[in-house]
Amino acid sequence: MDELKKQLTTASAESRQEWRGKLISYLAIVIIGGLVATILLFLTSKGLALFTKDGYSLGTFLTSSNWQPSHHFYGALPMIVTSFAVTLLAGIVALPLALVSAVAITEMLPKRANQWIQPVIELLVGVPSVVYGYVGLTVIVPRLGQLFGGTGFGILAATCVLFLMVLPTMTSMTIDNLRRVPKEYRLASAGLGATRWQTISRVVIPSAKGGILTAMIFGMARAFGEALAVQMVIGNAAVMPDGLMSSAATLTSVLTTGIGNTVMGTTSNNALWSLALILLLMSLAFNLLLRLAARKGEH
Amino acid sequence: MRAEKVDKIATTVVLALAGLTGLAVVSFLVYLLVVGLPNVSWHFLFSPAESFKSGGGIRDQLFNSLYLVVLTMLVSVPLALCAAIYLSEYAPQNRLTALLRLAIEVLSSLPSVVIGLFGYLVFVLQFGLDFSLLAGALALTILNLPLLTRSCEDALRQVPALQRQAGLGLGMSKWRVTTKIVLPAALSGIITGAILSAGRIFGEAAALIYTAGQSAPAISYTDWNPFSPTSFLNPLRPAETLAVHIWKVNSEGLVPDARAVSNGSAAVLIITILAFNLLARLVGSLIKRRLAK
Amino acid sequence: MTEQAALEVKNLHVAYGAKQVVQDVSLKFPARQITAMIGASGSGKSTVLRSLNRMNDDLATVTGTINFHGLNINQPDVNVYRVRQRIGMVFQQPTPFPLSIYENVIYGLRLAGERDRRVLDQRVEESLRQAALWDEVKDQLKASALALSGGQQQRLCIARTLAVRPEIILMDEPTSALDPVSTSQIEETLVQLKEQFTIIMVTHNMQQASRSADWTAFMHQGRLVEFGPTAQIFMNPQEEQTADYLSGKFG
Question: Any stretches that span the bilayer, and where are they (chain B) (predicted)?
Answer without folding.
Answer: 12-34, 66-87, 99-125, 131-148, 181-202, 266-287
